[in-house]
Each structure stands twice: as structure tokens, then as C-alpha cells.
Predict the structure.
Amino acid sequence: MPLWWHLMKSVPSLQIVLHRIAWSAVIVGAFLFWRDGRGWLKRALSKPNTWWMLALSGVLIGFNWGLYIWAVNAGHVVESSLGYFINPLLNVLLGVVFLRERLGRVQWMSVAIATLGVAWLTFRFGQLPWIALALAASFALYGLIRKLAAVDSIDGLGVEGAYLFLPVVAMLVWSETHGQGGFFDGYGVAMSVMLVVSGALTALPLVGFAYAVRRVPLSIIGLLQYVAPTMQFLIGVFVFHEAFDRDRAVGFAFIWIALAIFAIDGALRARRANARAPLVPAASPR
């Protein structure tokens, strides 16, 4: 994704995120209508409080997408990757605060080490890594709301897109009519096609994730989620040649150590839980 957004850096970031939201809403809505007909929207909103929770989660994910695209094209890919490294640990803290979940000593230790990493980066560079923290916070809050809403992943994404679609289209129309857009005659055919494809690049991985998460153990899903920020970090350093000096390396090292401790502890907990689980006898042949 950083490589894709970088190819589109000639387009203003706001225009990119507006098109990303609009076209992903069209693609997800068309998929749900093809799969379930008109009943998907009623089903998604059938539970109490779902309507406003999905409206809020839609605003959060739109903010997250917009900040990420701006950060990539402003030369902050490395700091953006830091946000998604921090995100799993922030999810843990939100679980403690809002869901009354309990952490073991090792988990608290990993959170403390990551906090030291953020503090180090703040101390050495004189300001909070606000891009990383805003990306992590918005995505963690999005995940919390989606967990509380208890709606199917794709249905929820469709409702979020439906909420955002009309305001986003209105902004796009205003931009085109006031000389601030360029989808039809300013960006060129290739760039306009890329804006449409951005919606597919947003929607299809989320649809795939919704199906995969039901078929792959959560312990593996958790480890796989570190692959994306690692790739983003490598792209930022080795492709875009962003600064990564010793001070930044120390701060990142704290957070990577915290994630390693957290991941290993989670894997050991899952193994112990599986060992304690009763064996289910095989069904007798008939």
C-alpha cells in the first residue's frame, strides 16, 4: 500500500481518501447485494445501538485511512509503520479499560517496555510520534467498537461505507465543480483508474480477512498482523530512504522487544489452553 499511494502522490491526499472511501463502499455494497440481496442492511442494523456504533467506526476508519495516505506521501512511512506495531499493545489496554480483561505480569511488562520506547522517541526528538499514536489509537478504537457492535465483518464494512458514501460523494462533486478535483479531466486516465482501483485494494483484503479469520487459528492471525508494518518499515527505509538513525533504532527496538515478549507469551498461553482442552471422541463409522 505505501508503494501504491506513493505512485499517486501527485493527487492531493484528501482526494485520494475520498475516492478510496467512495469506491470501496460501491464495491462492498455491490458484493453484499449480490450475496444477500437487500436483506443484508436490515440484518446488520437489527441489534440495538448498532446504527450509531457503525457510524462512529466509519468516521474512525475514514480518519485512519486519510492520515495514513497523507503520512505516506509526506515521507512518514517509517513512523506510520510504528503506529501499526503499537496497535496490538494498545488493543490490549483498551481490553483492560473497556472490556474488564485482565493481563498477566508478562503482558504488563511488554506494555511497559513499549511505553519506554515511545517515551525515548519523544525525549530524543522533542515531540510525541503523533502520527504513529494517532494511527494506532484510531485503529484500536475502531476495532473496539466493531467488537462491541458484534456485526459480521463485511456487513459492518458495508454499513460504514453507506454512512460515509453520500457525504464523500458530495465533497467530490464540490471539488470537481470548484476546480479542486481532477477525476474527469485533470489527473489523466491512468490516475483516475488508479483511484477506482484504490477502492478495490481497500475492500478485497478486508473481505478476504473476514473469511480467513474463520478458517485460520487466531494465534497465527495475530502473528501475521506483524507482517504488514514490517514490510512498511522496510519500504520506508530501503525504498524511500527515510531517516532511521541510532536514536530511532533504540526506540523501535524497545517496541519490537515488547511485541516479541507479547507474541511469545500469547503462543505459550494458547499451547497450554490446547493441552488442557478435553479430547473430543471421533464419531463412530456407520
